[in-house]
Amino acid sequence: IKCVGILTSGGDAPGMNAAIRAVTRAAIYNGFEVKGIYRGYKGLITGEITPFKTQNVSNIIQLGGTILKTARCQEFKTPEGRKVAYDTLVKEGIDALVVIGGDGTLTGARIFATEYNYPIVGLPGTIDNDLYGTDTTIGYDTALNTIMDAVDKIRDTATSHERLFFIEVMGRDAGFLALNGAIATGAEAAIIPEISTEVDQLEELIKNGFRKSKNSSIVLVAESPITGGAMHLAERVQKEYPQYDVRVTILGHIQRGGSPTAHDRILASRMGSAAIDALLEDQRNVMIGIRNNEIEYIPFNKAIKNDKPIDRELLNTLRKLSI
Ligand code: ATP
Question: Which residue's alpha carbon is at the smallest distance from atom 25 of ligand 1?
Fold first, then answer.
């Protein structure tokens, strides 16, 4: 391997820039050339590619978003599109790729790597934390802190007006942000997709008399067709309990922005550096994970299996502390 290409794809996540910086610097440190590919897999089709020196990644560790931009690219889902991408890589002399993104990004990487026997290392970059094989993903901690700040503010008005708030947070089909966000803000409950198939969580909450003597209540709801979303749940409660003053807040895209936390910067730096170590060790088609503070190489097909378990101990903690 002489030249490593880097791209970010799928939803942006805080810490992606720290990861781009780490991959670039670690690659150059080890004597590789580096090329930045713009707009995810789309850049491989349009040929939007620039050589990266150490200065190209100066002063970006603290920035949210991604300087390489990101895009969804339908063409890469077709064999014809991937052929164009492969030809671009050959033309540019890029011998290996580091891709930073979520589930879809790693799925695309796995398909491409197998099809062309091409070395790819993935970094888990998503606020959802829904990749198996790593305790947290790049961007998750920052999003969790953003949620915490927002919910603290909503708590002020909830208490003053004695209201019941349903606050919807991101996470796709994963409840990590909702559950840990609820614990961090002292919320009354979290409604998450992982549990929805077992019980009607709202019914359970109401049955347990979740308002009791409290003068405000906050329930965090994971966005997902499985939970039905905050609006839907609020309507159900309002119908059954017209005496409650129910409100809904959907936090939306503020959750994806902002300067990464120290945790995400360090995670991205370690993972970016480990991606180059993996290539040096001839590893391919693996995602870098960090579990129990140890770097691990997780095969793509394991990482994207989409069954990262929710920690029951966290659920129980929330239940105990919200009485
Ligand atoms: P996030 O979880 O933050 O949304 P993501 O990486 O899961 O990020 P997606 O939009 O699902 O985001 O995927 C990003 C890109 O990966 C797609 O636009 C597409 O180019 C590529 N991709 C996704 N799935 C496939 C697939 N099955 N085959 C080939 N490429 C794919």
Answer: 108
Tokens encoding 132? 């198996």
Closest atom of ligand 1 to 126 CA is 3
Phi/psi at 85 (5° precision): -60, -45
- Catalytic: 128? yes
Contacts made by residues 111-116, CB under 8 angstroms, sequence distance 24+: 111/82, 112/76, 112/82, 112/85, 112/86, 113/284, 113/285, 113/300, 114/285, 115/79, 115/82, 116/82, 116/86
| pLDDT single digits (tens) 247-285 | 999 999 999 999 999 999 999 999 999 999 999 999 999
197 HSE (CA, 13 A, CB side): 7
Expressed in angstroms and rounded, the spacing between residue 72 Cα and the centre of ligand 1 is: 7
Interstrand relation of 217-222 and 294-299 (parallel, antiparallel or unpaired): unpaired
Q: Which three-class secondary structure string do you get for 137-172?
A: CECHHHHHHHHHHHHHHHHHHHHHHCCEEEEEECCC
Please report the atom of ligand 1 found closest to the CA of residue 42: 20
Structure tokens at 201: 């969580």
Q: What is the pLDDT of residues 168-226, one digit of tens each?
A: 999 988 999 999 999 999 999 999 999 877 667 777 777 776 656 667 789 999 999 99
Nearest of 153, 151, 149, 185 to residue 168 by alpha carbon: 151
